[in-house]
């Protein structure tokens, strides 16, 4: 087509393609920014829609709004790279502050231009003849059909919360809630409260409940976890979550100083990866962590025995969790590590024969971490993604999977979800998607799909690295789909720097590419 000026970067006139992104949390909003602003040339040939099932943007920060919710990633690196926020009030931000930041960023950049709220994708089927995804979406209870050339899953991984599998749970006659489905209309004060779970959610909820007037709280834990209080804020302070002073905030408002500050935190975070390698660094961390936890527990032998893990630091996700260990010093806050055998109308029963009468049961029991979609995504030869991933999820570099052409995933299996800067990694992933979108549109490509052999090789490569890392240690964790043994399916087996290198090129040789003509 000679109508294109010769100095264009494209060899062919780009064909118009329709891109649908599912989800308007951090990942989906990053895609919105890339398509609307970062790569303005995409306007010429990309028609983009973001479907969001909920009534607002914000993803995980909209869903997880339990009391005390706070991010355990430093605020200054938990921000959109295109709009770093100099005004964070603390080293770690509250969920509410993050939600506010997300909403104001959306408004500032008009990122809701292509978003359709209250609209749920209920099915996606690949059509090999047309090279398109046929979609069904539900809005206000009505189903309609749509299509796209490229489908991007930006649904996140910790989306569908899990109720514990405890006999009698639903016979409980008091108030029952989940950390990811909090009931803000209920007054928790003056209640006897059972908090089940001691992951990142449970450890934030427990001290908040213990603070309320007249409460009696029991936290039921099954597996101990490390709660290091060593601040990576770079300041020698006791407070694990320091508030920023006015001077610091005004310093951050100078773009160069802010950039340097962010760089320093990213560098400290990247270096922390060394801690996750089995061996002397981790052994030192175990010693340090055990000593620090014992101090926080006032060297209470019973609490130390129950709470200080015997496995590596980082085997389960570490979280700063200020106030959790300290809460057990209060007379109204207790810990049980005996297995819950049943829940009755008014009590939690444990294997050691104890019965805890309570008015409230809070399940901080995590999420479905299978990666399996909760609606049919059907790829080549009728392959349903939920079936493909029934035993274990497999991906190509976390961003795509064989038999699912033109399907790209943010935070797919084995992504950079446990170390480094998550938002930075989503940003690199978004850039990677844009490269494919441009290539597909400008080279008249019908579809691209990762080769199964390469996907398998990536899995093996990751497994080999994982053998050297603490995530394969002897604990039970959601990194291994809530198992003790088995593959690490949630996390990338390498540093953030390695992930960045691996994703900086689209490596077409790893894909089968089908052209339209
Ligand atoms: O979920 P989890 P989460 N009886 O799966 C326990 C992110 N996040 O919502 O391990 C008793 O970690 C279960 O015990 P066990 C972050 O990535 C971040 O807390 O199966 N207990 C476990 O203790 C985090 O890692 C932030 O033995 C039962 C707990 O429930 C991820 O989300 C805040 C049980 C679930 O812990 C998930 O965190 C919140 C039973 N029958 C979340 N069933 C921050 O940034 C389950 N459990 C701070």
UniProtKB/TrEMBL annotation:
Gene Ontology MF terms in the entry: flavin adenine dinucleotide binding; N,N-dimethylaniline monooxygenase activity; NADP binding
Family: Belongs to the FAD-binding monooxygenase family.
Keyword Transport attached: no
Protein name: FAD/NAD(P)-binding domain-containing protein
Source organism superkingdom: Eukaryota
Keyword Nuclease attached: no
Co-factor(s): FAD
Pfam families associated with the record: FMO-like
Keyword annotations: FAD, Flavoprotein, Oxidoreductase
Family matches, as InterPro entries: FAD-bind_Monooxygenase_sf, FAD/NAD-bd_sf, Flavin_mOase-like
